[in-house]
Amino acid sequence: MKKLFVLHYAFICMLFTACNTAEQSSKEEVTGHLFIIGGGTRTPLLMERFIALAGGAQSKILVVPFAASDAEDTGSYHAEEFRSYGVTADYVAFKKGEADLAENLQKFDGVTGVFFSGGDQNLLTEMLLGTTFLEQIKEVYLKGGVVGGTSAGAAVMSAIMITGDEIINQSSNPFPFIKKENIVTTEGFGLINFAIIDQHFIQRRRENRLISLVIEHNLSGIGIDESTAIIYNGNRTFEVVGDRSVMVLEPHFINQPREDENGNLSVDAITLRLFLSGDRFTLP
Question: Which CATH code for domain 31-282?
Answer without folding.
Answer: 3.40.50.880
